[in-house]
Amino acid sequence: MTVEIRKPILVAGVGLTFALWLWNSLHHSLAEIGEWATLGTIALGGGFWWYKQNQSDQQISELLLQPLQPEDIEKALAEVNQIVSSIETEAPTLDIVNLKQKINQLPEHLKRQELQFVVTGSKNVGKTSLKQILENQANEQKIDWVETKALLSDAELLEEEVREIALAADLVFFVVASDLTESQWQILQQLVKSRQRVLLVFNKQDQYALEERIYIQQQIQQRVAKIIPSTDLFAIAAVPNPIKVRQQQEDGSTKEWLETQPPEINDLVDRLTTILNEEKEQLIASTTWREAIQLKQQAKEILNQIRRDRSLPIIEQYQWIAAATAFANPVAALDLLATAAVNTQMLVDLSGIYQQKFSLSQAQNAAGILGKLMVQLGLVELSTNAIAGLLKTNAWTYVAGSAVQGVSAAYLTRIAGLSVIEYLQEQEINLEDTNGINLEKLTNKLQQVFQQNQRTAFLQNFVKQTVNRLSGELSPSA
């Protein structure tokens, strides 16, 4: 196997590895220094990437409750157009006419007059009755009223469909008939995070005793205080239980009947009237913004696929370079140093594809963090043990010894590359700050990619493919 190396980082890093090996052959005591250098290389610069970690359980900021400004919509439109421009530059033959048409229609959506309101909630919370009453109350307004199917059903596809309908609306009436469950709370947070205007409605309050009713209202209010203002919380009875009426007749007999009660929704209707009079333009603007964000995500998925197709051959190129370098290097302690050099150059190339060009120092830091994470998560030991076990089935490769290092280096380089592109494709294009990395997110991507590539069938095929390449190193023609 012949590999042509033209990258200066790669040449310097691999050259340093073999220089250390040569020096080590004269002074065995330097093996310990080599190991120390390896650990130092992995840790180098790690602190620069740590300072901007995001907490895993972030609460929704009250800033999300602030109304969208015109510049927010302009920014979203500019971002989606920027991604489309990148697609046209990087894949000029790709047909994205439909996507561009939807994007071009967004400014017109800001001028529409008809609103769409959605009534949603779990089963048996009174969605249908509430929708009918509100529809009659606001019959003079241009409103398309939609009732979704029940949330929290067993069908995941249905659940996603309901959420999409809710996010596409201008206003959502989220109906509950008791205190919020954890699942309802999660859905409610997702809607508010997407800057959806929500009126939270506690229906069927008449079915509870006064003390219970007050307690449930307080529990709901405390739970949602940071994401929904108290002015958008309502306790109602859309269809109150009928009252038994008893009337004494002239003949001394008693007549009884059930008397239907009017809906107890006055506060909700008043709030709806205020919103229609004062916030119509804001509702439409927020919906248009969400449409822009959704189209941006669609465009980004297209662009990410284009860039992934360009990145995979690069990852394969460097995994074979890493395999050849580790296979030819008899000092196991220096394998990781060589792999770090390979990974550094690979990260520079991959970051360029994703328009987040890493400098040399940034690539070194990222490669060091990846190496450190692999050690901390036990991925190096797990992969090496698995590969060694598979190589035992081939007498030549197992006796060769260095084949284990070669295959492991190729495998870990591939895992590093795939993790980085998974990470980069979720980042914004042209990040304002390229000096930081979300360590938590990178760790999650590394774990996910490792698990996806730990399947026995994949490993067996990968080992076989790598062995076939390494075998060429000892063939006469190599």
Automatic annotation (TrEMBL):
S-adenosyl-L-methionine as UniProt keyword: no
Keyword Chloroplast: no
Annotated TM spans: none
Protein name per UniProt: DUF697 domain-containing protein
Pfam families: DUF697
Compartments (UniProt record): Membrane
Keywords: Membrane, Transmembrane, Transmembrane helix
Membrane topology summary: Multi-pass membrane protein
Gene3D superfamilies listed in its UniProt record: P-loop containing nucleotide triphosphate hydrolases
UniProt GO cellular component terms: membrane
InterPro entries, per database record: DUF697, P-loop_NTPase
